[in-house]
Each structure stands twice: as C-alpha cells, then as structure tokens.
Amino acid sequence: MIDILREWLGPWYLYIKFVHVTFVMVWVWSTAHAYAYFVVPVFKAWRRHPDDDAVIVLRDWVMERFDHGVIYEHVAYPIILITGPLLYIAGGWSTAADWLVLKLALVVLITLPIEVLDYHLSHFGGNKAKIRATGDSEKYEAAIHQHWYFLLYSSPMIMPAALLIIFLAITKTHF
Questions:
Q1: What is the C-alpha separation between 39 and 21, in angstroms, rounded?
Q2: What is the pLDDT of residues 33-87, one digit of tens each?
Q3: Residue 29 has pLDDT above 80, yes or no
C-alpha cells in the first residue's frame, strides 16, 4: 500500500513540499510579531499596574485580537500535519534517518500538545470574546490569566523547537 501511495504521490513531491514549507512558515511566524510587540508589552504594563483600568482594557483588547489572529496559525497547523506524512511517503523517507526521528519527536512531544491547548484557549472554552459575551467577569479574568501563563511557559519551548524543526527539515543533519 505504501509503495502504491509513494508511486502516486512521487510526482507531486515538490508541490507538497511547497505547501508544507509555506504553512510551516505561516505557523511559526503568524503570531510571533503580535506576541513580541503587543502581548508581552501589554502584559508587562498590566503586571506593573494591575489595577489600572486603562491597562486592563488594553490587555483585554490585545488578548481578544490575539485569539482572533491565531486563526492563521491554527489553519496552518493541520495542513502541516497532513502534508508532513504525505512528504514522508512521497519522499521515501524512513525512521532510519535520525534527523527525521528528532523532528517527529519535536512535533509529537512539543508542538502537538501545545497546539491542542492553544486551540482550546483561543477558539473553544478559553476564547475571551465568547466568555466576555456571557458576562461572566470572573471566568473572563481567569481565562486571561490562564492564557497568559500558557504563553509565558509555552513560548520558551515552542520557538526553539519550531526553529530546530525547520533546521532539521532543511539541512537533514545527521547526529
């Protein structure tokens, strides 16, 4: 079955790779600017002035826009998860390639759990605009805090992992 898929996908390898790499870049960079230049400075201001109503309004506005802005990232990630295995099959890769094993381990052990939680925090139960619409200010404040702690702890893991994944995919470096 794999050989049939490989034969069928083989001529499309470069096109699949183009889609894969494009969406990897969207996934990696779509929120980096917003996080670095909007979320972090606003949260630092909020931590310095936790009772300042103007800072809280800005914090809430930024987080609700951030939830909306990560849609690009969250569309890109499933496309990556689909095109990655297609590349594996079409390219004739195997798990004998240590660079690939490390790359897959980073994807499965770091990016996948973080993205699952990120989807929840931005679109499902943790979506700040939806919570605000319910009028439950305590739940809203808890969601803001939860998302901030998530970003605070996940960012130092996800950014180096994402860059290492890109490095491994491009260089196919053996260890």
A1: 26
A2: 889 989 999 999 999 999 999 999 999 999 999 999 899 999 999 999 999 999 9
A3: yes
> Could you tell me which residues come within 8 angstroms of residue 17 by beta carbon, excluding any fewer than 6 positions away?
83, 87
Instruction: Say if residue 38 is in the same domain as residue 16.
Output: no
Structure tokens at 106: 């980073």
105 shares its domain with 40 = yes
Range of the domain at 81: 1-30+72-93
From CA 99, how far away is CA 46, in angstroms rounded? Answer: 42
Write out the chain in H/E/C secondary structure.
CHHHHHHHHHHHHHHHHHHHHHHHHHHHHCCHHHHHHHHHHHHHHHHHCCCCHHHHHHHHHHHHHHHHHCHHHHHHHHHHHHHHHHHHHHCCCCCCCHHHHHHHHHHHHHHHHHHHHHHHHHHCCCCHHHHHHHCCHHHHHHHHHHHHHHHHHHHHHHHHHHHHHHHHHHHCCCC
